[in-house]
Amino acid sequence: MTDQDQAQDQDPAQDETRTQHRNQVPTLYEWIGGTEALERLTEAFYARVRKDEVLAPLFAHMDDDHPQHVATFLGEVLGGPTHYTEQHGGYPHMVSRHRGRAIKPEQRARWVELMLTAMDEVGLPEDAEFRSAFVGYIEFGSRRAMANSQPDVGPTRRTTIKKWGWGEGVPGEE
After folding, report:
1. Which of the residues 19, 40, 82, 111 has the least number of beta carbons within 10 Å of its own beta carbon?
2. pTM score, two decimals?
3. What is the distance between the alpha carbons of residues 78 and 62, in angstroms, rounded to a whole number?
4. Which backbone phi and psi does 161 adopt, to 5 degrees?
5. pLDDT class for 67, splitting at 50, 70, 90?
């Protein structure tokens, strides 16, 4: 590192510029395209689920508005409005919908696979930073749903929806 590089690293003005950039980073909800994009995603996804031999039995009694509820939940997770908590009972309600379903690892993996297919089908952003963050949540969330669905699982201590962000892959930074 040169003396000039070291001086730039210690320049308070440059630190302020970096902080301002980080404060202007859109949420994943904004980056994905908001509610409309999430509704397109969940509609395409659940259309596939209904026809899938691995997942259709798990979702056989799914309400017609289930895709919209999932879009609302994902919106809140990704930094959007808190409508799922306000209108649907938040995290405790979501967990209650998975209790006792005994989701199997192959069902969880298929759920992730179909979600990734639906992402491409509806044209969600393709940049590596977004995909990494979103797929990270899909993996995390599907694994938590599987764990919470097992027989004799006690109540969770979490009461609020976990917010998911960019992690280390903030857009615009190499």
Report:
1. 19
2. 0.82
3. 23
4. -75, 130
5. very high
Q: Look up residue 25 and give its two tokens.
A: 């980073």
Integer angstrom CA distances of residue 158 from 11, 73, 128, 173: 42, 15, 30, 33
Residue 159 pLDDT: 87
CB 32 within 8 A of CB 127: no
How far is it, in rounded angstroms, from Cα 2 to Cα 99?
58
Indicate the average pLDDT of the chain.
87
Highest-confidence segment of 69-73, 95-99, 154-158, 167-171: 69-73
**Cα distance between residue 98 and residue 106, in whole Å:** 16
Does the pLDDT value for residue 163 go beyond 70? yes
* CA quadruple 95, 96, 99, 103: dihedral, nearest 10: -50
Strands (DSSP E) along 13-159, which ranges? none
Pick the closest to residue 85 from 2, 171, 162 (CA basis): 162
